[in-house]
Amino acid sequence: LVVATALSAGLVLPRAASPSAGLVRPAHAATHRAAVVAEAAAVVASEVVTPSEFPAGNLRSLAEYDEMYARSVADPSAFWADIADSFHWERRFDEVVDANFDSTKGKVFSSWFSGGTTNLCYNALDRHVAAGKGDQVAFYHESNEEGEELPAWTYAQALAEVQRLANALRGAGVKKGDRVTLFMPMVPQLALAMLACARIGAVHTVVFGGFSAEALASRIEDAASRVVITADGVMRGKKLVGLYEIADKAAGLVRGLEVETQIVLQRLPPDVSGVSLKPGRDVWWGDATAAADPECKVEWVGAEDPLFILYTSGSTGKPKGVLHSTGGYMVYAATTTKYVFDLQPGDVYFCTADCGWITGHSYVTYGPLLNGASQLVFEGVPSYPDAGRLWRMVDKYTIAQLYTAPTAIRALMREGTGPLQGTSRSSLKLLGSVGEPINPEAWRWYYEEVGGSRCPIVDTWWQTETGGVMIVPLPIQGASMKPGCAMRPFFGVQPAVINEQGEEKEGACEGLLAIKAAWPSTIRDVFGDYERYQQTYFPIPGFYLTGEPPRRGGDGCRRDEDGHYWITGRVDDVINVSGHRIGTAEVESAVVLHPNVAEAAVVGYPHPVKGEGIYIYVTLNEGVHESDELRKALVMQCRSEIGAFAAPDVVHWAPSLPKTRSGKIMRRILRKIAASGKEVTADELGDTSTLADPPVVDQLIASHGIWL
Ligand code: WTA
């Protein structure tokens, strides 16, 4: 599990650094969803926080936000056309938006800036270099090893490298529309590889470096990528992550096509990585770029041409390839970055997310570069060599905006304020949070201890599918915040709270979060499966849903009396482990692959650091006995099928699973038992009258889970 946490987007402390993490029984967990909501609700009335010193920035007042928001929904075309015109279009668009969220009126679609041609890479790099900003730093690169100085990348250097790499890709036969899979460590070159794809109109599909060979292979297969960009490996804390080895194994597992070329970035000394390339297929990044032409012409692409595919988990089935297109994504990623992080000239910005997830796409690679910002990329983990690492980096690079996840905040909070001492953090202007609900306790620690009660907390709610931040307390001088509340919609976003029948609720209410009009970076498709796209996200006429049927919604939501939005967590079978979105069905499929397993059910349970932990109920085949060995084998099975971050925290041997008479597993009961440990009483389980075999539940309560 150390690998899991170490790899998790640079967000989490490995277990070694917080010995009690994961050992805490749910009964003691401080961050149960319900508790988060109840705790948050309790502060609504009593606590409204106003940071002491936020300067006037890109938004000068709440009144300005109100005015812009009103304009953005009253006349989206005029609003977004104005903004889009600040980008380079090789050919200007003819129409700003055309969309349909109602499948009863025809195909669901969302089209922005049609008729326009542009290029993300051109707008992120060439445009700034042409404007004389070539010497400005695009990326500072902080090594895993504190004290090891690595060269920074200016915009001009980034552009030069991207052109060579793009030519190397073209040399490998990559053409517009072809998919290229990126399986890399969190180094600046990962962002450069994304931009190289964009430059030639290729579609990148980044796979997080914590995935296993099997998971990588299935994504390569689904995207039909013949070219993979990877690295020899990377040190994360004390752990060596052998990316090449995994990519090489994955290439061998891919069916139906062949990985013809692998470009391999050398990040480690050869004696450490031990990598020897496969002749004919593999080439070192350095050799490929050295041999390539330094100039690479931009491929102008249509605004609706695809930019990238990013796989994400849902309640059912295999991960979906979320497809984003060019023009709308560009405009929305850039605009949200500008206002959410209040970027100003001279700021150094730091997002700890990995480009393997959407946060790294929109708020490392695209948003900041489109705004011409300087940012820090950190390849290590916040706990190495100790829990003061992040704070020392903030001082070293004079970070103005820090964007991280609640799971990281909770892990660091456990270490107390000691690691903060000796750092000033006076450069910080605002603090961001993403990926899961932030519990008020963590919110307060972040706000008071890290930011000294000076910095707004921008708690950004959004999803892989939304492409950019949707609901957020925008940083505005004098504006107050409610701890744990995502507050207001971003420009152009029209949230709705609906019930399970799909009826919109009015005023202060609670229900499922949905969005009722297209925004520029709306998900365009599920790669290769339009039907699934329409059925998953648009089953209710007129709404984009945040999760899938049958629950008809992913995120629960409450709108308070002031019209502010509180995200209360997933209501479907997706769990959020250290900010990683995992489908319980995926973990179940991994577990049942074991020949001794008859059946498995997976649920999330409250975990004090990770937000949610993975709890698996396993029914073994007749005659097979429970054993430590078998338990370890099941954990290994999850690691090898998905990745170390999907390894279960608790295994519960279940004589059988509670089912309805029609054979459906009653997950509600399983969640309840997992959340309360064995102290749960039959009364607490709620209505069990539909159970086919009631004693099953008593057996489950009498037995109990084994915490790993
Ligand atoms: C959850 C990550 C509460 C939510 C950007 C969503 C949040 C899922 C927040 C998407 C937040 C993300 N408050 N919950 N500020 N941000 N979530 O696709 O359940 O990896 O549906 O995108 O994370 O996860 P994804």
Automatic annotation (TrEMBL):
Which part of the chain is the AMP-dependent synthetase/ligase domain? 128-516
Residue ranges of domain AMP-binding enzyme C-terminal in the record: 586-664
Q: Name one Pfam family in it.
A: AMP-binding_C
Query: Acetyl-coenzyme A synthetase N-terminal domain location, by residue?
Result: 65-124
Per the record, what are the reactions this protein catalyses? acetate + ATP + CoA = acetyl-CoA + AMP + diphosphate
So what EC number does this one have?
6.2.1.1
Gene Ontology annotations of biological process type: acetyl-CoA biosynthetic process from acetate
- Keyword Nucleotide-binding in the entry? The reply is yes
Q: Keywords of this protein's UniProt record, alphabetized? A: ATP-binding, Ligase, Nucleotide-binding, Signal
Superkingdom, taxonomy of origin: Eukaryota
CDD domains on file: ACS (cd05966)
Do you know which InterPro entries this protein is assigned to?
Ac_CoA_lig, ACAS_N, AMP-bd_C, AMP-bd_C_sf, AMP-binding_CS, AMP-dep_synth/lig_dom, ANL_N_sf
Signal peptide range: 1-16
Question: GO molecular function of the protein, one example?
Answer: acetate-CoA ligase activity
Tell me the protein family, please: Belongs to the ATP-dependent AMP-binding enzyme family.
Q: Which NCBIfam families does this one have?
A: Ac_CoA_lig_AcsA (TIGR02188), PRK00174.1 (NF001208)
User: What protein name does the entry list?
Assistant: Acetyl-coenzyme A synthetase
Identify the species of origin.
Emiliania huxleyi (strain CCMP1516)
